[in-house]
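Shipment paperwork, digital attachment
Item: protein structure file
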Amino acid sequence: MATKLKSTIRRIPWSLVLRAGIFGFGWFLLPYEIFFLGALYLYFIPMFQPRKLALPFFLLLLFSYIETPSLWSAILMSAAFYLVLGVKDLILIDRVSAYELLILLIVFLGGFQLFSSLDSSVGAYGLLVPIIWSGVFFFLFRNFLYYPEDSPSFFGGVLRERGIWVGAIASFLFWQYLLFLLVLPLNFFYQTALLFIVALLFFEILPYYVRGNLSRERILANLSVSFFLSLCVVTSASWSF
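Attachment content:
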């Protein structure tokens, strides 16, 4: 047991953990200008595939500017930046799963920020922000589909076109669901949880559809889990009519 534990500890990318911790807790403790410069250094140095995870990285910088620093937010920021660097620098082994988890974390952070800043009286601003956020979701989803190291067949013309259409439809449904959640008389935390569940459902089903290997068993299993989780959230929430 001790040998296995030592082996596991050795395999942990401690330099990556350190850089992610500096990112999250630098945001929590330092003035934003200093944190911003430090974040750019941590991402771009060493200069290796900077465009690959540029969108998730700059979204994290946007969240860090909007969000009020707190300990839990700092931990989430550290976790997201850990995944950004781990995928970009080819440090993590299962980079597809890490990429998916990263996007889901971004969806959670973005949803939390959106629902906590808007109320149920959806005005022009409340309509515009979900549209922008749905467009961002499209690019995040598309980049995940065409992750080159793990899905080279997606660069074929037919599959690439199918992926774009699937991403566009998913983004439209994402936008509609955002509007639906905005008018629900729920606390923003529960709204965020429901959005996260639907985003997870998309990522567990739609990539398989694009590849052409989506099975009925996978559809039923994921729909059942999503329905159960959504039911738990809805029944445990306090409704404010």
